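Note to self: keep these together.
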Amino acid sequence: MSELLTAARAWAADDPDPQTRAELERVIAQVEAGGGDADLADRFAGPLEFGTAGLRGALGAGPNRMNRVVVTRAAAGLAAYLRDTGHTRVSVVIGYDARHNSDVFARDTAEVMTGAGFTAYVLPRPLPTPLLAFAIRELGCAAGVMVTASHNPPQDNGYKVYLGDGSQIVPPADAEIAARIEAVGAVAEVPRGSGGTVLDEEIVDRYLDTVAGLAVDGPRDLSLVYTPLHGVGGTTVLRVLEAAGFDEPAVVTEQEQPDPEFPTVAFPNPEEPGAMDLAVALAERRRADLVVANDPDADRCAAAVPGPHGWRMLRGDEVGALLAHALLSRGTRGTYACSIVSSSLLGKMAAAAGQPYAETLTGFKWIGRVDGLAFGYEEALGYCVDPEHVKDKDGVSALLLLCELAAETKAAGRTLVDVLDDLAREHGLHATDQLSVRVTDLAEIAAAMERLRAAPPAELGGLAVERVDDLAVGSADLPPTEGLRYRLADGARVVVRPSGTEPKLKCYLEVVVPVRSEDDVDAARIAAVGRLDALRDGIRTAAGILG
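Structure:
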């Protein structure tokens, strides 16, 4: 107890933020008065881990929270890494979203960078993450920082780091930066300079022109509903669609403006149940052709389509297949890549078109680094359709390409679902789903992984396990990561891994059902639902998890 209180008092004394300092002092006082120390102990359970996703956590005081002390130390560690790896007299560009304290953390980062002798550029206002990734290469910077927690809950914020190639950091850079963060002394002793140069709107215009330049001539008749989910994508998306020749979409009024409280959704993630309800309701009223959405920092894109039984969300793998189809139909050459938890359909589509295909570990930090990348995606709604300019997922350019494809199919008297049916007839129906279990104790995830390794299942959902890949071992194609991949009979697959950004264990399921005739797609979909349900039950039992 005394050591905990001593550490907490030292942290409070070094905290430059009066709000979090007062917050911590209140917690200290409660413990000193005889109250429980669980809250204080959690705040000092250890520093937020700096990894390939940078930093992400709940806002608050203490090393296990996102705050100005943690951000200042992270910026100082990054500056030391850049200096130690030969980057001198170079620039760093900093972006931020509209979450609580994002602008404050961006300003702290700029002051630390200028204090370390670097030029710091700051984006002019809260803007999408892909615009920051674009600006790194456009401005010739050595690194970039995006202050965002993407689609995490409102109480969170985060700190994403890119290097000069415009890609997110990967090992060993993450560990090397983390070591320098750990070596930072008192925050009060970190040199600080000016707040850097705040860029004008020209950098935004250059990004918008680049994205709009992806558009090709074609039909533009499309009734569209859009929601930015209280995030920063709204004005950017509207300007891109206008420049590409589309009529202005109907925007969900309640979610149109950035709001760090995200008042209309339980989780600001278009994948979460209920997040798209307002958009779908508006689409029903307007008899729209398509619903599109971004997550709060607009690096992801989601879509919903009408059908005979009402509106349905397209899965991330379905949108990935549609975007790949659009690019392959245009003759876009290069490597088509996706993560190991995404559908195997992309590999078959690329092979049929005579294009290379690659699988990577989960995350665009890996996808963006694929040699000769033409298109990359991951099932969690992340798509890269223009790697020449943005080597990261970009929900704005992906949205534009999807709208173009929807307008083309509408002009031909068809729908996006018809395109998916065509792909099923050609390659088999590839159906995917996910079992995601949120935990309060991370030890539950480790225990589930240990159970699977100690007693590997011989079958899952009635399908024989033909091969097990322990991803922690790594291979010639993939660096090691925590996870297990089960290859099953009939082309089915299950991948189990801990989430890299949330306290979740994720199980990714895929089945492949042959489509034997023109009219067999619906029957194949029904069969796939049953097989996915069986896989879900099978892996839940094998791992000993609920959810």
